[in-house]
C-alpha cells in the first residue's frame, strides 16, 4: 500500500480517516493541510488528535517533499527550478510570467522514452515515472517562491500520457476544491501523440485541455524527427483527436516545432492545413531551441511568418511562440540540456 499522503485524493484521505476510526472531517483536514497549506510533517496537522497523528506515523504514513536544488532566472522573467527527487534523480520545472498571471510548466517523468531528436529531454536516458505527489509538489514549491500559479501545462520533462495514471491523479488533486482548486480549463496536458491514451483521456471524468506535438505534415518526416512517429501514423492520432473532441467539445492545440529545411516549407504548411481542417484546432509554431548535440537548426523568422500566413489564411488560428527562457535553457525542448554530455 502506498503510504505517501500527498499521493492521496480527497476521497482516499477520507477513507484513511475512517479506517483509523476517525470522523470523516479528519480526512478533510489531512487533505487540506497537505494541499492547501503545504504541510510536509504529519505532526504539523494540529487539528488532528495526537493519537491519530501517532497512529499514522506508526503505520508508516508520511508526506513526501521534493527538494529545490537550483533556481535560475532569465531577464525576461522566466524562472527555471531544478528539483531533486528520492533516489537522486533530478527534474526541471519552468515558471512563465504573463502580466499578472503565472504559468508553470511541470515535468511528469525523469528523462523521457520518446526520443524526439529536437528535444534535449528526449536525449536523456529514461529513469522513471514521477508519482502524483512529485508532480503536484512542483506546483507547491513554485508557489512558495513565486505566488499563486494560475495556469498549469504538463509540458516539462517526459511524456505525460506515458505516465497516465499518476498524471491524472495529480490533475484530480490539483483541481479539487479542497486543495489548490485550479480550474480544469487552466490545466493543459501535452502529448507527442499516443492514440490509445488520448481516447482514454476522452473517457476520463476529469478532462483537461489537450495539446498534441505533431511537428510534421506527414509520416515520413515525423518518423525522421520523432521516434514515436515510427509506431503511430498521423491518421491514428487524428482519429483519436476526433474522438476526444466528440466527447469533450474542446479545441485541441497543435504544437509544431519549426526546423530549417525539414518541416518548414510552404508545401508542408498546405499539407498541414489539409490534415487539420476536419478538426477544431489552433496551432502554436515554435522556433527550434538549440541544445548541445542537436543536429537541426531553427527556421528563419521570415520562413516561420510565411508558414503561419498559410495556416491563418486557411482559417486556422495560429500563434508564433515567443522565445522565453533561452539564456537559462528553459525554453521549449531545452529542459535537461545542461545534463547532456
Describe this structure in words.
By secondary structure, the protein is of the alpha/beta class. It is built from 10 helices and 12 strands. The chain folds into 2 domains: 5-58, Orthogonal Bundle (DNA polymerase, domain 1), CATH 1.10.150; 67-339, TIM Barrel, CATH 3.20.20. It has helices at 10-19, 24-35, 50-58, 132-146, 164-175, 195-202, 219-225, 234-248, 266-276, 301-313, and strands spanning 67-73, 79-84, 90-98, 101-105, 109-110, 128-129, 151-154, 187-191, 209-213, 252-258, 281-287, 317-321. A 10-stranded mixed beta sheet has the order 1-2-3-4-7-8-9-10-11-12, covered by helices on one side. A two-stranded antiparallel sheet has the order 5-6. The protein is globular, with a radius of gyration of 21 Å.
Any descriptors?
19% strand, 33% helix, DNA polymerase, domain 1, two-stranded antiparallel sheet, alpha/beta, TIM Barrel, 12 strands, 341 residues
